[in-house]
From TrEMBL:
Xref: Gene3D superfamilies: P-loop containing nucleotide triphosphate hydrolases (3.40.50.300)
Keyword line: Kinase, Transferase
Protein name in UniProt: Guanylate kinase
One function term, GO molecular function aspect: kinase activity
InterPro entries in the cross-refs: P-loop_NTPase
Organism: Actinacidiphila guanduensis
Amino acid sequence: MRSGILLYGPPAAGKDTVTAALAALDARYVPFRRLKVGSGKSTGYRMGTAAQLADLEASGDVIYRNERYGNVYVVDRPGLDRAFEGGAVPVVHLGQVTGVEQVAALSGVSWVRVLLWCSRASTSERSQRRGDTDTAARLAAWDATREDLASYPREGWEVQVDTDVTMPGRAARQVDAFVRRATPQP
């Protein structure tokens, strides 16, 4: 069975940072690059077109899509299939509980659901520090994530990390330890 990690949390909670720390622990951990249709930051995404998105939707290959910051973000079946190649363990970043549920429902994959959390003040500070020009929108997304999280049971997360007090390396080790306990090793 294939294994993957779903990292959920508000903007600037540390999804990129924890993913990098996971990859430093074990090369099997690879960031899943969602398809992004729109503009703005392209690092960490596979930039696509509206026509590509329409083709994926027509073929039933969109596992989850959401719209935020004026863009469309997609977890797609062909992209995930490529991410699992060679025994890799993709790390999928999500900011909506619905996305976690839809991706976790994918058959043939053992997903570890990880809640990364930080305070609203940390989101603001981190967003400004990394040079985001849309910090207000990211704070609105933080508010939406907090509301969204209220609908999901706390026990639904295999790992929960407060990134205000947990360094990225330690968070990665916590996630890695759970993945190793939950999945058979070759």
